[in-house]
Amino acid sequence: MNATIVVYGSSTGTCEAIAEKIAQKLGCEVINVQDLTTDVVSNNKNLILGTSTWGAGELQDDWYDGLKVLQEADLSDKTIALFGCGDCESYSDTFVGGIGELYNGIKESSATFIGSVETYGYTFDDSEAVVDGKFIGLPLDDVNEDDKTDSRIEAWIADITPAL
Description:
Number of strands: 10
Shape: globular
Helix content: 25-40%
Order of helices and strands: EHEHEEHEHEEEEEH
Distance between the termini: 5 Å
Radius of gyration: 14 Å
Oligomer: single chain
Largest sheet: 7 strands, mixed
Structural class: alpha/beta
């Protein structure tokens, strides 16, 4: 596996815990988006980026500065996988919208995006994270569907690992 890092933005600790789980399974480093620099980006071939979703489908607050770092970096030779946390019951109309916001901020970068997930098995009404009929990354609701989190992470990691 090429140099890989998991970068997360978390306000309540849920996304942080999931990021740590993913990093442990991949055997790579995990950092808070507040510590993201262009040097970190340039030193890693693979970027696993995670955000929680707030308000009406918005990025976690720390990601706004992190997104600027990514937009200033050269991502043309990077492989990027996205994951995010949301609430499919209380916010079913903006479920994991933070993933969509993150994707929209860097989709023109020429990076290779991996790790899309079928919408089948998820309960939600709408999501900015759905692109071409699939989630652009791994959506998780660790509050209402915590019984599915580990198996979803396992399946997603099995899917993305060959590309890393």
